[in-house]
Design a protein that fits this description.
The complex is a heterodimer of chains A (about 400) and B (about 70).
Chain A lengths: L1 E10 L4 H11 L4 E4 L14 E3 L2 H4 L9 E5 L1 E5 L5 E5 L5 E4 L1 H14 L3 E3 L2 E9 L2 E9 L2 E12 L6 H5 L11 E10 L8 E4 L9 E8 L2 E9 L6 H11 L7 E10 L8 E2 L2 E3 L15 H20 L7 H9 L1 H15 L4 H10 L2 H8 L3 H9 L2 H4 L2 H10 L1
Parallel strand pairs in A: 1-2, 1-11, 2-8, 5-13, 11-18
Antiparallel strand pairs in A: 3-7, 4-7, 5-6, 9-10, 10-11, 12-15, 12-16, 13-14, 14-15, 17-18
Chain B lengths: L4 E5 L9 H5 L5 E4 L2 E4 L9 H5 L5 E5 L5
Antiparallel strand pairs in B: 1-4, 2-3
The chains are: A alpha/beta (about 400), B alpha+beta (about 70).
Protein name (chain B): Ferredoxin
Keywords (chain B): 4Fe-4S, Iron, Iron-sulfur, Metal-binding
Pfam families (chain B): Fer4_21
Chain lengths: ~400, ~70
């Protein structure tokens, strides 16, 4: 059996893992980043949309090799077909090519000094003298013992290593969404906008999305509550059929579950940290988790470097504290909003999208939700409904 | 007391996405790069994995109890 020794081992090369590996390696510590997939980034489980702000914020090159398309806003569709368009003059987001993006993030980690091993599956943790001293992994047919002072579980929604290390990442099924997506040829939708369809019959608790990757090519997907008796695939195929969209030019099928119902409380146990989807650090409103993974990875790597510098692993616990005081607090508020929107009927969705004017759309685009809710509260059809007033007030 | 079950996978439908392993409360499912694995001794027959699968690749059959 082969043995290795590093300061830090990172399990999982999605988004959070390579960010941690890159940042820690930059500070001069030895890091190994492993991923069970033979090709990092493949298959993807993602709609691939991300805010344009993340490139500068997390020091990621704005590289055309992994950017399919710049996006200028969004269009929302209510159950009865009312539309609300939010369009910016400048590009507000991009649709990535995750298979290239993830691999390039691992490449940046490697360039910063980290070792990277694809097709290396973490099997279990190694316990020694009452603490976790590393992980046992398998690279092709060879068992490897990787000893490390710090172990980072960035192993996605399965969070096997985090759970085997004793971090409680479990959540009940209602706190996950099941999602299913085709990358396919599709026409008739403005390719400069992302498109979102809402409705309890369309996508229970979630939405259908069209994220354009080209003039006539897009990720067309759906997320629904994972404890639904029907599958996500059933709802997406139904939507395509009802909208007369032919599904016969399909380039990819992507599936997965998304943790949208809350966040792992203790992100650190001794010398183990959990980041990204494994820590359920996902925006509960839209189910996107890339920016959240980048933020968590940045905070985690800062405390790993400090702990190694000061030779005091107790400092790792500050990752939990800092995350909960910053992004955690923000996401808790988003979760509260999500729980309220879950109660909206199709009639509510129709009405709200119908009465939001262009000026209100500007406010939504600017993130000024409070003003939008105040505008909705003034509308006669809202004033006459105590239930709607109650729901909207919960959002303020 | 729920009926004891064995979870089975339809390999032609499964994408090895790991969702079932992620929602399993007892780590009774492992999704390796090479395949899907069910650990009967850990399963508590809650069926969460079956409903969470985005493509309906999982199903249950009653577990034969030895007399």
């Amino acid at each position: 059996m082969k043995e290795m020794k590093y300061d830090v081992v990172v399990v999982g090369a999605g988004i959070a893992g390579p960010i941690v590996a890159r940042n820690v390696a930059k500070s001069g510590y030895s890091v190994l980043l492993i991923d069970k997939k033979p090709a990092i980034g493949t298959p993807k489980q993602c709609a691939e949309g991300i805010s344009i702000k993340v490139f500068e914020k997390y020091d990621i090159p704005y590289d055309k090799r992994f950017i399919n398309r710049e996006i200028y806003g969004a269009k929302l569709y209510s159950p009865s077909g009312y539309e609300l368009e939010l369009r910016y003059k400048e590009a507000s987001g991009v649709i990535l090519e995750r298979k290239v993006f993830d691999k390039m993030l691992a490449y940046y980690a490697a360039k910063a000094g980290a070792d990277v091993l694809a097709r290396t599956e973490a099997l279990d943790v190694i316990r020694k003298d009452g603490r976790i001293a590393g992980i046992k992994a398998k690279h092709e047919d060879e068992t490897v013992e990787i000893h490390a002072d710090v172990i980072v579980a960035a192993d996605g929604v399965e969070s096997t290593i985090a759970r085997k290390a004793g971090i409680n990442t479990y959540a009940p099924p209602h706190e996950f969404d099941s999602s299913y997506e085709y990358e396919m040829l599709i026409e008739g939708y403005d390719p400069d906008l992302i498109h979102l369809w809402f409705g309890n019959e369309v996508a229970p608790r979630g939405y259908v999305w069209v994220f354009p990757k080209d003039e006539d090519r897009a990720n067309v997907g759906i997320g629904i509550n994972s404890d639904n008796p029907q599958t996500a695939k059933y709802y997406l195929d139904k939507w395509l059929k009802e909208n007369n969209i032919p599904a016969k030019k399909i380039l990819e099928v992507n599936v997965g579950v998304v943790p949208v119902g809350g966040f792992v409380k203790e992100l650190v146990k001794d010398n183990i940290l959990v980041v990204g989807d494994a820590a359920r650090q996902v925006n509960p409103m839209h189910g996107g988790g890339m920016a959240e993974a980048m933020e968590a990875g940045t905070i985690a790597s800062k405390w790993i470097v400090k702990a190694l510098e000061e030779e005091d692993l107790a400092l790792l616990r500050n990752y939990t504290t800092e995350w909960w005081e910053t992004d955690g607090e923000r996401l808790q508020k988003v979760l509260k909003v999500r729980k309220v929107t879950e109660k909206l009927s199709d009639e509510d969705l129709d009405l709200f999208i119908q009465i939001l004017s262009g000026a209100d759309a500007e406010k939504i685009a600017g993130g000024d939700y409070g003003e939008v809710i105040k505008a909705l509260l003034k509308h006669p059809k809202v004033i006459l409904s105590p239930r709607r007033i109650k729901l909207l007030r919960e959002l303020l | 007391m729920p009926e004891k079950i064995k979870v089975i996978v339809n390999e032609d439908r499964c994408y090895l996405c790991g969702g079932c392993a992620g929602v399993c409360p007892t780590l009774a499912i492992e999704v390796h790069s090479s395949g899907w694995e069910f650990l009967q001794d850990k399963c508590i027959s809650c069926r969460i994995c079956i409903s969470a699968c985005p493509v309906g690749a999982l199903s249950a059959e009653p577990l034969e109890v030895s007399e």
